[in-house]
Amino acid sequence: MTGDDDGTPRPGGGALLVVGDVITDVVARHRGPLAPGTDTSAAIRTVPGGAGANVACWASLRGGCEVRLLGRVGSDAAAWHERELARSGVLPLLVVDPLASTGTVICLVDGGSAAERTFLTDSGASLRLDAGDWSPELLDGVGWLHLSGYLFFSAPSRTFVAAAMDSARARGVPVSVDPASAGFLADLGVDRFLALADGVDALLPSRDEACLLTGLPDPADAAGKLSRQAGLVVVKQGADGALIARSGEVRARVPAAPADPVDTTGAGDAFTGTFLAALLSGAGAEDAVAEGCLAGARAVERVGGRPDG
């Protein structure tokens, strides 16, 4: 890996390998408050999801590099997820778990103007990746490794993270991490997460995650602090765009693209996948972040976390 004049990590070409969760999403869009103890009218769809899988699909849509996805699923939905990933142009490298079913997330989406969502998560097989599922040969032909933060939230997958990061460092393959969930981060512990992610080439938190990881209320201050530990920090702020920080300070603020939100599920994944594919195609950080913002705007205008293609 090299760097250019703006400090952006520069992979030497090759594929993007995403490792993370492959999930079945049940998206329920309701308008107005939920009615406890009785019925609430909703539009319900079952779609393929998972932060890792979504990132891979958006990266593939952006183009410019081969995209591979390593994840763990149950036999109940393995064939469906493999077909859906391949249909999006992603090379699926799915481990079929003999004991656990595919993870499922129920996404409750408020049909109001903000399209805010609440997740009910059964991670299932997705957090059962372990060191035995990793091989250094998975990095053959790979120019960038991206790890979903959900991998940090279970003991088996933390052993996987350690093995994958060691292999990437040995080969000079840059590594990025998306912290993934403020709630799970709080349960794991900030210090523990930061120790596990120490030295990554790019850290891509949301505003809430950045503030939680630093204890600072201002996202710009949080971005600066985090960038003393990671080579490049990009803080995703939704409708407020994104911040780019390096070496302890914010270097750029990129505005969001306009959007009419329908479902905010997967907006951060759209940003991340597009951003990483742009970097692998030779874009500088600011241009790659601008592309990520455009993809995030596109994502919130449709139901589910994947692109239409």
From TrEMBL:
UniProt domain Carbohydrate kinase PfkB: residue ranges: 16-306
Keyword Kinase: yes
Xref: InterPro entries: Carb_kinase_PfkB-like (IPR052700), PfkB_dom (IPR011611), Ribokinase-like (IPR029056)
Keyword Cytoplasm among record annotations: no
Entry keywords, A to Z: Kinase, Transferase
Pfam families assigned to the protein according to its UniProt record, in alphabetical order: PfkB
Official protein name in the record: Sugar kinase
Species assigned in the record: Streptomyces fructofermentans
